[in-house]
């Protein structure tokens, strides 16, 4: 069982599991959820096995391709999967967050558990697939595939006006992704037309496309339009400023497990898309669009933070906070230098962990008190100390307190951004303002998170009014299961916080390849290579 | 004095008139005029108009027909032309009458007349079986059934809805729309391309008639533009030696066509042996076709008839609870 | 030897923190303080050993000494940036600890005071539900503080800068069920975060301009690969420091970070509210250690500040102004701990003033004052803690008095602390404050120092009640003395003159409010609030012994360090202080007799005024406070110059309002737009609905019309045949 | 006589017939007359078919006309049955009665100007509808023998 088939197995397992649970597995909720948990554990096992064997290097790892369209059709479109530095950790994150999601929804889901768990597992296979796909068509299939289970998750098990949220989420993302599909297809076709070699075939494989475009980029005008098309789909998924209104709604109405996965993984597909397609394949367009995107992401940061400040619903506050955090990711991405891009990729993982944890905690709170209104809580620390402890950890991780994961990503992003704005060729005035505003996002972030923690957890104990009467099960602190759901996330919070080098080394080679233009066009690269070479000896 | 004024007015306005005339005489002009006249006619002739308006409508109708007829080249052979005109006139007049007749019974009867006219035209075309079939089946059976049903559902006295149509505007719009079809088709005929074709065919017929005499008959002439050369295919029913004569006279024919028709300067004619639809034993051939190539079609038509029969019975509903009669309220 | 020492010092508190955190709630509960005290004592011993080894090193080499040990590489992105001269520079952050004079002094001070506070805390926090939590947080704090002073990289300095902020948040909000405590904790963290915002900006600018964030040079087998910001190469002049606007920007942003942490003028509002936390916390964090982090950072970055004189002036102005402002506010506070809090802000202002002079003497004086201030301020806070302990957590001076007989030990140690703070002769405060005043004076009047003898006639007695112009006459006399061409005859001298005057006036204020608090607490009729219940008596030995030790140090430390300038001699051996530029500035060590005398007189005057007003029945105080002129001033000072309200009104409210607007915008405009797009198809659909008339001819007519249109189009567009 | 000329004549007549049928179908409101006009449209088409058949020397033209006739027959059968049913149901042959399939928000078509009852409306002999035993009374029977 070599690594690549393990990778394929890790994608197929949840799919089969979902079908098994959905249709075949009889029995009450207890047995179903254990089966689901076992399946997700096995998947996580495969994921860890694959991730642990990743050799640091820039070329694709664990690649396996099954021919889907016969070569006779002149189209090379295969089910090809593989991991590289960029998708490695996101792939791992999806596996990890699924465990938390299933554990969190242990007692929360009562009606139709079989369907719920099968939807969740479908979602997992979708997420794993998106990051592992090395074929454009396969990528797009999984890209769409993740929408459907989440639509049902929000639509059926959501809270009060879940249908509106589910429909809005689905249509919004679908509209965007259709534009992206057009963009991708035009990309493939224009590459086909551009290559004048005799045996040219219409290839969908991403590595081949990237190499072809690296050799001979498309003409600038087409690139700009393509970038715009790709932007539509990906920017909606990353909720970039004007297109973010679906996120708070979807989060507020989604069940806990749905929110964890939505915040943890689905938002990353957008930024992953930018980093996989837009930046390496369309360098000229990236150059053209960068100032716009930088401004949009900074607006996203400040806007998300300020709006989060005035929220009355915990989940909405955290949703707006993820708008702000992903604004940071986009900022890092479009700083277009090594620091920024690596920081952004790290920040994607950090955000997944911290916001995933926060949503899990809010879910647990909701399970106990059945209300998300901040005003109805106060001083819970006295009654739920363990929950408060975990809440503090994830809050400080999300506001980027040093020693925790948020800090590592944020610092690299901001340094990268500063480097782009103040140093080197394009030190344009506007970008300077962008970089300073971005740093202020850190302060605003601390403000609304601490306000939330202080308002809900500290101060005199006030519990929502309706919990006193049904004294049947008094509100108790976190059970072992809930702690087990959060502990793996905490481990990663401190691991990335204290030793991010472990993660950066595995990402660096691939990311350097994806932004060659940024470093290459700076002055006399060869001279610096010599200098760096002398240092490499010393570093390792 | 006013005479000369009239004359002066006439002379200086004559240029305007001439220019208008020339423009109108063009195919577009004529098509539009025909269209307008036909529309006016139909508008007047509607079921609810009084007799005098109907007559006025008829006059305009005839005028419109005249204009439309101007599009179509007259057939060279006078008696045939007159027979055709007679039959066509009969058909069209009775068709108009069908529409404008106030009582449905009259409509049915007028429709039967128009069927007669149509049958005549079929015969004129050489489709003897169809002519007879139309009269027998169509006029005889279908229209009679109509009358039969009319009598069944016969409204006591004239139903007002027969007199009134859809009110002012639809009555105006509908003829405009429908007559547009006719004027569009007529406009096609006015195209120079088709007129050249007719002239060319006339020439071909003349030469064939002169050369091969009785034992060669032109069945079909088709032309198509091949680059700047127009190719004329002629299907001739003739024996070998007539064909050979025709072949060698081809160049001379092409020259005459060349100078007769300006834009067909370069023209190539080639003769093919053609089949003939209007053979003597027409019905035998028709039967052969019917039960040869279209056998399936015939069987299906048979089933269709059976199904229609059963359907009609079911819909009409012979069961007892529907009391016959009491329909005439 | 010294490098594994430097690792042990932070390791012990970390170990203690982890142990207590894990075993605390179940196992240790009551006696978790042993773990902490033991750990602090061990790390104090190590820091002492480090201190002596560093002192030994310094004697030998004479110039500067630093030794760097690397633990592990935190993050490494190679050729992350192409710096000015084309080299591609890696973004390399190693967790490295350095041991040099500055670090060892700070470490000794921090660990010593932490140990005493831990002992005091054991007594003070006795019986509290979160006992183990308190000691876990304190150990975590000391770990972060020790790492902060010993780390050798700007980024890691920032890391522990925020870690210390986190611990202060946790400790201020220790009694989280009290809403004011958690609000104060949040306020402290957020104001620090604003400071850190400036600090972060500075770090990025440093990274861009210097290509590295390390203090030390990154040396690989003898060859310097990456020159550190305060590495030998750069200090030695081989590489230039950035000058001009960028240098000023970096220094001012660093200063913003320092203001956030050391509660200087714009960002000082959090310190008085931080008194909500337990008193040992206030003593340790908000008097001795954390607040000094800002001063430590500015001292560490002296080369940067040296590169931009106008940044130094700004530092001095901020320091001077904060000292004056805090002094004025402390006058009318009736909460003992708040008085001490404002006095801390004021003394920190003094330190920044000294650092702002930019001369080596100034910087040494600043650090010396930091060193002594830590002792007597910790003493005062612990004293107020024992008072609070006795008075049943009441700290409002109006509700108790005349405690000198009730709590003799606290009374005596508190007196020593007040004397030291006021700067009376033998006590520590005198030496350090005198050194600061001297350095400011020399900076203000460059040549005056050399004519020492002439100044004798101006020690005439003058009444403190006269307002500031009295000082003008005093300085005019000095000005008349001709100035030798001072090397920095730049335009800032008149600013320093005014700063010197405000410093003297603040010294007077300090003496006045310290002894006002002292007399209000310990003199007058004995009043005991009823909350104190049965235990209104001297605090147990475990609490007053640390007070005694601190009192002794407050008494001796000034004299001992000043003896033959041992402190100055050791401190100047720090690399960042021992570079060429500093040699030509004013050298430390010159004892100014005239300054000493004048400052003592001012202090005595302050005490006399306080005694006059507050001893015996305080009729005069009411009379003065009623005066038309004084009443508004008193109100202004009592309400902290309404700064809190101004900040709320100017910053907090607008941002929240902006948030509301954005949220409204988000809901109606952006969301509205999306829903609008959603409604378009519906509207279109209902439009076509009315075509269904139900009339058969209408349908057929529309069919024909459509056919005709197609025919017509065919005819027109493609010419038909 | 040129074939094309013949063709064009027939096409013209066929199109006129078709147009008249269409006009009739749209204008008239009597179900049966509308259906008659539909038949007339069929006739117009068969005319053209015949003309093209002859022009192209091809039998398929005539084949189609035969099928047209059969279809017309079936259609007539069923349509008339339907018309009967409709007439029985709505009491009159007017198409306007059958317009409640319209969109519910839409106003029905109502005749504005209802023409005065034509004076000279002939009184048709009312034949007893087929299939009903006429009421015979003795006196009537007697007279018929005379």
What can you see in these coordinates?
The complex is a heterotetramer of chains A (540), B (329), C (721) and D (146). Chain A is mainly alpha-helical and 540 residues long. Chain A has helices at residues 3-24, 29-52, 85-104, 113-132, 136-145, 147-157, 162-194, 206-215, 220-237, 246-253, 256-281, 283-309, 314-333, 338-369, 380-383, 385-398, 405-422, 429-457, 480-498, 501-514, 516-520, 525-539; strands spanning 61-67, 75-76, 78-83, 202-203. Helix content of chain A is 74%, strand content 3%. In chain A, the strands form 2 sheets. A two-stranded antiparallel sheet of chain A has the order 1-3. In chain A, strands 2-4 form a two-stranded parallel ribbon. Mean pLDDT of chain A is 85; it is low at 518-540. Chain B has 3 domains: 27-191, Four Helix Bundle (Hemerythrin (Met), subunit A) (Up-down Bundle); 194-273, K homology (KH) domain (GMP Synthetase, Chain A, domain 3), CATH 3.30.300.20; 287-322. In chain B, helix 2 (27-45) packs antiparallel against helix 3, helix 5 runs antiparallel to helix 6 and helix 9 runs antiparallel to helix 11. Chain B starts with a helix and ends in a 13-residue tail after the last helix. The longest helix of chain C is centred in the C-terminal third of the chain and has 47 residues, at 643-689. Chain C starts with a helix and ends with a helix. Classes of the chains: A mainly alpha (540), B mainly alpha (329), C mainly alpha (721), D mainly alpha (146). Chains B and D meet through helix 3, helix 4, helix 5, helix 6 and helix 7 of B and helix 1, helix 2 and helix 3 of D.
**Strand percentage of chain A:** under 5%
- In whole angstroms, the N-to-C terminal distance of chain C is 104 Å
β-strand percent of chain C reads under 5%
Low-pLDDT regions of chain A: 518-540
Q: What is the average per-residue confidence, as pLDDT of chain A, rounded to a whole number? A: 85
The level of helicity of chain C is 55-70%
Principal-axes geometry of chain C comes out as globular
Radius of gyration of chain A, in angstroms, nearest whole number: 23 Å
Radius of gyration of chain C: 32 Å
List segments of chain C where confidence is low: pLDDT < 50 over at least 5 consecutive residues: 450-489
Large-scale geometry of chain A = globular
Strand order of the largest sheet of chain C: 1-2
Structural class of chain C: mainly alpha
Oligomer: heterotetramer
Biggest beta sheet attributes of chain A: 2 strands, antiparallel
What distance separates the N and C termini of chain A? 33 Å
Helix count of chain A, per DSSP? 22
The major β-sheet of chain C equals:
2 strands, antiparallel
* Most extensive chain-chain interface: B-D, 119 and 93 residues
Average pLDDT taken over every residue of chain C: 82
Q: Please, how many helices of chain C?
A: 27
């Amino acid at each position: 069982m070599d690594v690549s088939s393990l990778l394929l197995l890790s994608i197929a397992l949840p799919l089969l599991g979902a079908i098994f649970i959905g249709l075949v597995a009889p029995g009450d909720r207890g047995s179903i959820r254990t089966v689901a948990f076992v399946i997700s554990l096995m998947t996580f096992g495969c994921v860890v096995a694959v991730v642990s064997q990743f050799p640091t290097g820039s070329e694709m790892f664990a690649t396996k391709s099954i021919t889907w369209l016969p070569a006779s059709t002149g189209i090379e479109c295969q089910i090809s999967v593989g991991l590289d530095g960029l998708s490695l950790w996101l792939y791992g994150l999806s596996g990890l967050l699924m465990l938390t999601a299933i554990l969190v929804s242990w007692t929360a889901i009562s009606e139709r558990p079989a369907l719920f768990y099968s939807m969740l597992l479908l979602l997992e296979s979708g997420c794993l697939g998106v990051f592992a796909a090395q074929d454009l068509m396969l990528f797009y299939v999984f890209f769409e595939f993740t929408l459907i289970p989440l639509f049902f998750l929000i639509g059926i098990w959501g809270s009060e006006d879940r249908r509106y949220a589910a429909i809005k989420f689905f249509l919004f993302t679908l509209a965007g992704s259709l534009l992206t599909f057009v963009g991708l297809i035009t990309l493939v076709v224009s590459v086909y037309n551009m290559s004048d070699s005799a045996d040219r075939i219409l290839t969908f494989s991403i590595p081949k496309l990237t190499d072809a475009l690296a050799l001979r980029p498309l003409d600038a005008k087409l690139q700009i339009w393509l970038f715009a098309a790709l932007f539509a789909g990906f920017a909606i998924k990353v909720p970039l400023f004007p297109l973010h209104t679906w996120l708070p709604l979807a989060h507020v109405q989604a069940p806990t497990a749905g929110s964890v996965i939505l915040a943890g993984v689905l938002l990353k597909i957008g930024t992953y898309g930018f980093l996989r397609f837009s930046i390496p394949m369309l360098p000229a367009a990236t150059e053209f669009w960068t100032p716009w995107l930088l401004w949009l992401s900074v607006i996203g940061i400040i806007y998300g933070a300020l709006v989060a400040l005035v929220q009355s619903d915990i989940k909405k506050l955290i949703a707006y906070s993820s708008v702000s955090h992903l604004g940071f990711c986009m900022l890092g991405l479009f700083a277009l230098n090594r620091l920024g891009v690596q920081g952004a990729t790290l920040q994607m993982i950090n955000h997944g962990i911290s916001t995933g944890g926060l949503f899990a905690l809010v879910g647990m709170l909701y399970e106990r008190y059945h209300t998300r209104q901040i005003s109805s809580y106060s001083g819970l620390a006295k009654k739920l100390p363990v929950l408060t402890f975990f809440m503090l950890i994830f809050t400080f991780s999300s506001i980027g307190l040093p020693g925790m994961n948020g800090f590592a990503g944020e610092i690299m992003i901001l340094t990268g951004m500063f480097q782009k704005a103040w140093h080197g060729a394009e030190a344009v005035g506007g970008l300077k303002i962008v970089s300073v505003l971005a740093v202020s996002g850190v302060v605003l972030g601390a403000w609304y998170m601490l306000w939330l923690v202080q308002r809900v957890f500290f101060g005199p104990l006030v519990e929502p009014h309706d919990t006193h009467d049904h004294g049947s099960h008094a509100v108790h602190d976190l059970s072992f299961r809930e702690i087990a759901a959060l502990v793996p996330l905490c481990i990663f919070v401190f691991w990335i916080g204290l030793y991010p080098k472990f993660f950066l080394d595995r990402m660096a080679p691939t990311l350097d390849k994806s932004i060659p233009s940024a470093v290459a066009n700076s002055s006399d690269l060869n001279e610096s290579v010599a200098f760096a070479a002398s240092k490499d000896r010393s570093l390792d | 004095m006013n005479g000369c004024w009239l004359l002066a007015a006439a002379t200086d306005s004559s240029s305007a008139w001439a220019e208008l005339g020339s423009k109108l005489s063009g195919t577009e002009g004529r098509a539009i005029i025909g269209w307008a006249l036909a529309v006016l006619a139909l508008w007047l002739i509607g079921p609810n108009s009084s007799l005098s308006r109907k007559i006025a409508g008829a006059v305009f109708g005839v005028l419109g027909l005249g204009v439309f007829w101007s599009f179509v080249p007259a057939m060279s052979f006078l008696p045939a032309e007159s027979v055709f005109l007679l039959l066509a006139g009969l058909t069209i007049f009775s068709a108009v009458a069908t529409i404008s007749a106030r009582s449905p019974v009259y409509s049915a009867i007028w429709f039967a007349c128009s069927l007669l006219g149509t049958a005549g035209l079929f015969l004129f075309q050489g489709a003897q079986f169809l002519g007879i079939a139309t009269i027998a089946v169509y006029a005889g059976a279908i229209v009679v059934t109509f009358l039969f049903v009319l009598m069944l559902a016969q409204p006591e006295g004239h139903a007002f809805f027969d007199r009134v149509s859809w009110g002012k505007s639809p009555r105006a719009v509908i003829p405009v729309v429908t007559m547009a079809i006719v004027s569009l088709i007529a406009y096609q005929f006015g195209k120079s391309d088709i007129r050249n074709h007719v002239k060319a065919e006339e020439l071909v017929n003349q030469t064939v008639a002169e050369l091969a005499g009785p034992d060669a008959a032109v069945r079909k002439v088709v032309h198509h533009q091949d680059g700047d050369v127009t190719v004329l295919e002629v299907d001739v029913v003739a024996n070998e030696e007539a064909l050979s004569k025709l072949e060698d006279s081809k160049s001379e024919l092409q020259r005459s066509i060349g100078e007769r028709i300006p834009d067909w300067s370069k023209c190539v004619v080639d003769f093919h042996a053609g089949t003939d639809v209007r053979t003597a034993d027409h019905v035998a051939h028709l039967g052969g076709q019917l039960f040869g190539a279209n056998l399936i079609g015939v069987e299906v038509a048979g089933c269709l008839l059976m199904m229609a029969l059963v359907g009609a019975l079911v819909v009409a509903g012979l069961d007892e609870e529907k009391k016959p009669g009491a329909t005439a309220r | 030897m010294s490098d594994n020492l430097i690792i042990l010092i932070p390791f012990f508190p970390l170990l203690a923190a982890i142990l207590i955190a894990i075993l605390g709630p179940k196992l240790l509960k009551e006696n978790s303080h042993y773990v902490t005290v033991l750990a602090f004592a061990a790390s104090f011993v190590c820091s002492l050993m480090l201190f002596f080894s560093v002192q030994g090193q310094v004697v030998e080499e004479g110039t500067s000494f630093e030794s760097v040990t690397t633990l592990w590489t935190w993050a490494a992105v190679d050729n992350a940036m192409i710096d000015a001269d084309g080299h591609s520079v890696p973004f390399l952050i190693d967790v490295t600890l350095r041991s040099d004079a500055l670090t060892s002094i700070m470490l000794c001070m921090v660990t010593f005071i932490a140990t005493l506070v831990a002992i005091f805390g054991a007594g003070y926090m006795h019986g509290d539900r979160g006992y183990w939590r308190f000691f876990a947080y304190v150990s975590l704090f000391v770990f972060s503080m020790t790492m902060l002073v010993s780390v050798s990289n700007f980024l890691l300095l920032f890391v522990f800068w925020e870690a210390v902020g986190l611990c202060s948040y946790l400790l201020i909000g220790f009694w989280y069920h009290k809403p004011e405590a958690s609000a104060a904790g949040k306020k402290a963290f957020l104001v620090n975060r604003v400071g850190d915002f400036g600090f972060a900006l500075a770090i990025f600018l440093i990274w861009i301009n210097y290509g590295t964030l390390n203090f030390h040079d990154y040396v690989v087998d003898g060859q310097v690969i990456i020159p550190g910001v305060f590495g030998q190469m750069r200090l030695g002049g081989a590489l230039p420091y950035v000058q001009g606007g960028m240098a000023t920007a970096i220094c001012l942003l660093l200063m913003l970070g320092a203001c956030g942490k050391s509660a200087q003028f714009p960002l000082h509002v959090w310190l008085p509210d931080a008194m909500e936390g337990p008193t040992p916390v206030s003593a340790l964090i908000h008097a001795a250690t954390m607040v000094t982090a800002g001063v430590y950072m500015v001292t560490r970055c002296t080369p940067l500040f040296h590169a931009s004189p106008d940044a130094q002036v700004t530092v001095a102005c901020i320091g001077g102004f904060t000292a004056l402002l805090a002094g004025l506010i402390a006058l009318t506070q009736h909460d003992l701990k708040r008085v001490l809090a404002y006095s801390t802000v004021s003394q920190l202002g003094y330190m920044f003033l000294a650092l702002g002079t930019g001369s080596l003497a100034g910087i040494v004086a600043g650090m010396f004052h930091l060193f002594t201030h830590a002792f007597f301020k910790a003493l005062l806070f612990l004293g107020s803690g024992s008072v609070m302990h006795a008075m049943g957590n009441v700290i409002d001076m109006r509700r108790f008095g005349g405690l000198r007989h009730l709590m003799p030990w606290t009374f005596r140690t508190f007196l020593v602390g007040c004397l030291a703070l006021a700067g009376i002769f033998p006590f520590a405060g005198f030496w350090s404050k005198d050194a600061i005043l001297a350095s400011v004076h020399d900076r203000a009047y460059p040549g005056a120092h050399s004519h020492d003898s002439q100044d004798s006639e101006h020690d005439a007695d003058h009444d403190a009640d006269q307002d500031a112009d009295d000082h003008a006459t005093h300085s005019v006399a000095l000005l008349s003395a001709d100035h030798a061409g001072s090397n920095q005859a730049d335009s800032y001298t008149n600013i320093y003159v005014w700063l010197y005057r405000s410093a003297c006036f603040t010294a007077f204020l300090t003496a006045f409010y310290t002894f006002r608090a002292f007399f209000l607490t310990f003199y007058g009729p004995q009043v005991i609030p009823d909350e104190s219940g049965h235990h209104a008596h001297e605090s147990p030995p475990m609490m007053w012994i640390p007070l005694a030790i601190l009192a002794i140090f407050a008494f001796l430390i000034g004299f001992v360090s000043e003896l033959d300038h041992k402190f100055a001699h050791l401190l100047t051996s720090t690399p960042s202080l021992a570079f060429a530029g500093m040699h030509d500035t004013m050298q430390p060590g010159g004892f100014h007799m005239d300054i000493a005398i004048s400052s003592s007189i001012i202090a005595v005057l302050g005490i006399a005024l306080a005694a006059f007003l507050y001893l015996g029945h305080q009729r005069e105080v009411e009379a003065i406070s009623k005066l038309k002129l004084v009443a508004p001033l008193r109100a202004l000072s009592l309400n902290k110059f309404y700064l809190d309200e101004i900040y709320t009104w100017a910053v907090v409210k607008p941002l929240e309002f902006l948030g509301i607007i954005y949220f409204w915008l988000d809901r109606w405009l952006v969301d509205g737009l999306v829903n609008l797009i959603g409604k378009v198809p519906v509207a279109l659909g209902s439009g076509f609905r009315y075509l269904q008339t139900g009339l058969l001819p209408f349908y057929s007519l529309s069919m024909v019309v459509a056919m005709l249109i197609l025919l017509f189009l065919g005819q027109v567009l493609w010419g038909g045949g | 006589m040129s074939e094309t000329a013949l063709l064009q004549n027939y096409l013209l007549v066929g199109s006129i017939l078709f147009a008249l049928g269409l006009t009739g179908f749209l204008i008239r409101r009597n179900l049966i007359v509308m259906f008659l006009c539909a038949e007339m449209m069929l006739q117009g088409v068969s005319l053209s078919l015949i003309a093209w058949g002859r022009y192209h020397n091809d039998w398929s033209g005539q084949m189609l006309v035969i099928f047209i006739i059969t279809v017309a027959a079936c259609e007539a059968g069923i349509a008339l049955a339907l018309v009967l049913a409709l007439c029985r149901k709505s009491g009159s042959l007017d198409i306007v009665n059958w317009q409640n399939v319209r969109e519910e928000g839409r106003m029905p078509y109502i005749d504005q100007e209802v023409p005065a009852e034509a004076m000279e409306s002939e009184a048709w002999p009312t034949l007893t509808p087929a299939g009903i035993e006429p009421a015979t009374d003795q006196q009537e029977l007697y007279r018929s023998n005379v």
